[in-house]
Amino acid sequence: MAKEAVAKTAEQLGKEQRAISVAEFFEKNRHLLGFDNPTKALLTVVKEAVDNSLDACEEAHILPDIKVIIKTVEENVFRVTVEDNGPGIVKQQIPHIFARLLYGSKFGRGKQGRGQQGIGISAAVLYAQLTTGKGTLILSKPAKDKPTHKMELKLDTTKNEPKVLHEEDLKDGPLKHTGTSITLEIQGKYIQSKHSVDEYMRQTAIMNPHANIHYENPPGEKFNWKRSIEKMPKLPTEIKPHPHGVEMGILERMAHATASRTIASFLQNDFCRVGSTSAEEICRLAGLDSGASARTLTGDQIKKLYESIQKVKLMRPPTDCLAPIGTKMFEEGLRTEFKPEFVRAITRDPVVYRGNPFQIEAAIAYGGSLALTQSGEVASEDAVQQPVKLIRYANKMPLLYEQSSCALTKAVQGIKWKRYGLEQSGGGLPSGPASIIVHICSTWVPYTSEGKEAIASYPEIIEEVKLAIQECARDLMRYVSHKARGELAEKKREIFRKYSMELAVSIHAITGEDKEKLQAKLLKIAEKMYKQQGGDEIEEEKPAPAHNEEE
Amino acid sequence: MAKEAVAKTAEQLGKEQRAISVAEFFEKNRHLLGFDNPTKALLTVVKEAVDNSLDACEEAHILPDIKVIIKTVEENVFRVTVEDNGPGIVKQQIPHIFARLLYGSKFGRGKQGRGQQGIGISAAVLYAQLTTGKGTLILSKPAKDKPTHKMELKLDTTKNEPKVLHEEDLKDGPLKHTGTSITLEIQGKYIQSKHSVDEYMRQTAIMNPHANIHYENPPGEKFNWKRSIEKMPKLPTEIKPHPHGVEMGILERMAHATASRTIASFLQNDFCRVGSTSAEEICRLAGLDSGASARTLTGDQIKKLYESIQKVKLMRPPTDCLAPIGTKMFEEGLRTEFKPEFVRAITRDPVVYRGNPFQIEAAIAYGGSLALTQSGEVASEDAVQQPVKLIRYANKMPLLYEQSSCALTKAVQGIKWKRYGLEQSGGGLPSGPASIIVHICSTWVPYTSEGKEAIASYPEIIEEVKLAIQECARDLMRYVSHKARGELAEKKREIFRKYSMELAVSIHAITGEDKEKLQAKLLKIAEKMYKQQGGDEIEEEKPAPAHNEEE
User: Fold this and answer.
1) Mean pLDDT, residues A473-502 taken together
2) What is the pLDDT of residues A398-437, one digit of tens each?
3) Interface touch B59/A87, C-beta < 8 Å
4) For residue A291, how many other CB atoms are within 10 A of its CB?
5) Would the pLDDT of A135 be above 70?
């Protein structure tokens, strides 16, 4: 059946060359976008829609109300609806946002956001048509006094362009005020595991305590996470690129496309942290006239400009553009979710990798529901020696897959956990009834793939994560050893109680003194001793009764 | 410096939306293409150029002569030249092939090849201009009697289109007959390690024994791998998609774009393994008229067609389209490279994952240079207990990065190596003075990223790799235990030799018989015994002398 292998000339080979649409590329490579298997595909579809909804609410400064409903259509086919109360989308943008890959407002704009590539939601639409042949239904109401736009869309993969299957304007749509709703029909698989949509929704709720989230899973269970804070969290802002993080080729492109007239004004207007003094200094070092046109710089001049930029000292990029969740809200979210006996969160100061500001937050929650089995019983010693539960976030968005190749995981594994009182074998995650939570926020999160599942291993990021977790771990160690000392003292007291009766019997046999009086006396001596020691000052394994005998 | 966060309406958000060129996307995400760091970037540039050269020679049935020269321009800046004797490229295609992402002849064509995406070499050109601002120089001679085309190119990232900086035709270029040469200037880092260009070239030579490869590294060392076989290897051929591997959305697209008039002819002409009987059967099950037009099928009809395709039994895709290297050539390549004391290669029969045919080859080389230290000495026991060297190939192309996330690695780790006499700790690679080599060839290799560094973990692939390696491992075990028995026998003989002298002295003390005669007799008895046992039939630890004493 296979075609015969025939030697080809340049002429013949030339005729076979063609342009490949980016949609065709990702259709064939859909595992790159998080659609490797049916379980992951269901999660990815929900994730892309929820991320878009939360981002949209944030842009419009609206406290989010998000509804996620997944219904089983037939075996392994699901209808997913995600609805928000965001600002809505104007009619002419709907087809492009939902049915065109590499289209959006978030790409490389220097602003922290869940979305950053302009691929995710259109990839979900593509996946829906690929697996069920169905178009995606969008409802969007961009203003209170305007109708709701209804559109059914597919993506023309050979052109990477939207195909509108149906459109109409509804006077009385289901959406109140403003908002957007998307409904996709996809092949998928629903499971209840650490990679499930249920888990994703739960982790999203922890990180977004300002959101009301309603979720119905395929078996029909309903979950409601009520907002625990009635105020918008700190919002991220936009920054311009920092000159030290820009490569030569990008500098050239920016110079040739600038709206500024001169090189000096280009440097000041198109970058952050460049004032007039720095701009003049850069031009002087490059041997360029600061008043010359930036748009006509030659390749050699760009190279000189690039090199002199590296030589001039500039302030690091501003970092107030980032919006971490904050220690208090972070701990609050974890308390609500895990009811732990101990929780500690840390927000590190923002720092920079390759010109991009980023900030790490980490937390450890210990005990409480984490020490229980799934059926709610106290776990056995063995179960407690399971690895801790690691929860990873990037720009407030849970990362559920690719844990082992993620920089956040590597940072946790790189800590010497025995120093902090947790077991650790073979450089893996530590063990214990605990959860470690890490959050990276950045204007540009370096994901290892388009599927946004893991963070690339920049040393600056790993270092910051380590520092944050170590700080939490020190407090955890204090808590655990305090608790352990308390438990030890209690155990000793218990042993002494039993022992004192035997002792009393022996003394009674020798002296004839009353057994119960004797025991009461012995216990009194012991209590006094424990009080002196404050109950947790016992340093050695020397048992208390022996000590008592010497008196 | 950061812009104030201002609430935005749908109207305002709409104005911020824009299309992102695929070149801009990969410029910002260049780690996805294998340009994460300077060391990897240098390797990736060489790899993309060499892969293209080998593929071009294969297409034209030319025994490849490849030259790779890397010169240091300044610290961490290199000039890379790769030249081949392939068919050359016609003038009008040069800019598109080298300076336009997602352009090529190899995408999804159902043919095994090193390149398959139409991204690699243009990404290298993009990386060059990004880091040094320099254009890339191409020389290409598409026919013996025609001039050599010379072109200097950049890639316009905002449009994903080539920019020709300079072009001319040379009457007397450096290229003889036909061929192509590419020269790029890039930022990079040259190291000598298991991730180095040197190692990549070496591994490429092992897998391509029909190629002459000349390589000069930055320190100026010259390597020449002469072809050891003067015949073109089996060449891959092209196949049509198999109906069972095609998704609903793709079926729809194919139907609407088909050149065939009817549904029946569409099924027979555009797919493999569908004859007229199967085509009729599919139409009947779908309730469709087999003579109706395929181009006008509705969404519902496509769905029915898709479902009935799944129900009809079809032959598996043809697998003669694949071109493995073959057991003999594989072992030959390894013997030349490692001079091992033992080598065994296996080529499995082709099988199928998701409609794509693939084939696994594996080999184990043991001892020889693998048991030596880098300085050429016999390694100590400790050194021998290092993990084996794992070499991975996909479509004859070495994979140097992302070893731990690769399906080929997981398969090796998943084998219980103790059964085969190799140490293995904690589910990692086995230890020993050996190398394990795995090769997957397929019409569509499922890489985990655009950088083509690791294979996605399809269970079918992992299973085939395991079976192939286990077969090699069984032979290795036989060899090693045979060798160990031989060594044990020799050791025992040695012990007996020493012991026999002492025994002779003792007997002499009792009987006064001549010591040397006594020892000679004892040794003779022992030799006879060993001969009977064939030197390697010793089953127990019972020492030979004791046995002798009983006589």
Assistant:
1) 82
2) 999 888 889 999 999 999 998 888 888 777 899 989 999 9
3) no
4) 11
5) yes
Q: Where in chain A is the domain with CATH 3.30.565.10?
A: 22-225
| Distance (Å, whole) CA B458 – CA B429 | 20
pLDDT at B538 (0 to 100): 35
Q: Do A133 and B306 touch (CB under 8 A)?
A: yes
Question: Lowest mean pLDDT: which of A356-360, A392-396, B174-178, B274-278?
Answer: B174-178
pLDDT value at position A464? Answer: 95
3-state secondary structure of A503: helix
Q: Which residues contact B61 (CB under 8 A, 6 or more apart)?
A: A5, A7, B232, B235
How much is the pTM? 0.81
Find the residue in B nearest to A99 (Cα): B19
Interchain CB distance below 8 Å, A8 and B60: yes
Q: Which residue has the higher pLDDT, B172 or B149?
A: B149
Beta-sheet strands, E only, within A348-458: 351-353, 356-366, 389-394, 397-399, 423-424, 430-431, 434-442
- For chain B, residues classed under CATH 3.30.230.10 are 327-475
Inter-chain touch B88–A10, beta carbons under 8 Å: yes
Both tokens of A291, joined, read 């008043």
The string of pLDDT tens digits covering residues A352-367 is 888 788 999 999 999 8
**Does the domain made of A22-225 have the CATH classification 3.40.1180.10?**
no
The answer to whether residue B303 neighbours chain A at the CB level (below 8 Å) is yes
What's the gap in Å between the CA of B207 and the closest CA on chain A? 20
Give the number of beta-carbon pairs within 8 Å between A and B: 244
Which whole-number Å values give the CA distances from B356 to A83, A127, A361, B109, B261, in the listed order?
38, 20, 44, 12, 27
Q: Considering only the top CATH level, what class is B327-475?
A: alpha beta
Partners of B257 on chain A (C-beta within 8 Å) are: 158
Q: Is the pLDDT of residue B3 over 60?
A: no
The pLDDT-based confidence of B535 (bands split at 50, 70, 90) is: very low
Is B243-311 a CATH 2.170.120.40 domain? no
Q: What is the pLDDT of residue A374?
A: 58
Mutate which of A29, A136, A356 to disrupt the B interface (most B C-beta within 10 Å)? A29
**CB contact, 8 Å: A245 with chain B?**
no
Within 13 Å of residue B344, how many CA atoms lie on the same side as its CB? 16
What pLDDT was estimated at residue A377? 66
Q: Is B185 left (phi over 0), alpha (psi -120 to 50) or beta?
A: beta
Residue A482 and residue A65 in contact, taking contact as beta carbons nearer than 8 Å: no
Q: pLDDT, tens digit, for every residue of B30-63?
A: 888 888 889 999 999 999 999 999 999 998 999 9
Q: What is the rounded distance in angstroms from the CA atom of residue B385 to the CA atom of residue B376?
A: 17
Min Cα–Cα distance to chain A from B47, Å? 21
Closest residue in chain A to residue B107, using alpha carbons only: A20
Place of tokens 């379980």: A39
- Using a CB-CB distance cutoff of 8 angstroms, which residues of chain A are in contact with residue B129? 248-249, 252
Residue A49's alpha-carbon distances to A121, A283, B481, in angstroms, are 6, 47, 59
- Interface membership of B446 toward A (CB under 8 Å): yes
Q: What is the mean pLDDT of chain A?
A: 86
Does the distance separating the beta carbons of A299 and B59 come in below 8 Å?
no
pLDDT for A375 beyond 70: no
Chain A contact for B302, CB < 8 A? yes
Mean pLDDT of B521-534: 68
